[in-house]
Write a structure and sequence with these properties.
By secondary structure, the protein is an all-alpha fold. The chain has three helices and no strands. It has one domain.
């Protein structure tokens, strides 16, 4: 069994990774690699989605994996905390949060499989 402190460390690291990935400074490629195209619409099929400001597939995959780590860790923390909950209210709250984390985890898995 993994100690709660270790799970919390993993959660903090995963959140920091997500924050770093989602920050405006993060880019999957330097500006010099972005394709510059002429204004002619006949070149539009050759333009990368990144030219329009969208993330590429690899950047999306990395972000989803980071979020997956956060959700998994959150579910584990809730499950372990549930054992120590002293009141029914806390147990109910932790069960709802755990279920939400688990559902989010499943959706992220589906998104990754879709990619």
């Amino acid at each position: 069994m993994i100690p709660v402190a270790e799970l919390m460390r993993e959660l903090v690291q995963a959140v920091q990774l997500v924050e770093r990935i989602m920050s405006p400074k993060h880019s999957s490629s330097p500006k010099s690699e972005i394709t510059k195209v002429a204004s002619s619409p006949c070149f539009i099929s050759e333009v990368s989605d990144m030219y329009g400001g969208y993330a590429d597939i690899e950047e999306i995959r990395i972000s989803l994996l980071a979020l997956l780590t956060v959700e998994r860790t959150g579910a584990q923390v809730c499950a372990l905390s549930l054992k120590d909950a002293e009141s029914v209210e806390w147990q109910n709250l932790l069960m709802k949060v755990h279920q939400d984390e688990a559902n989010s985890w499943k959706l992220l898995i589906e998104c990754l499989e879709y990619l």
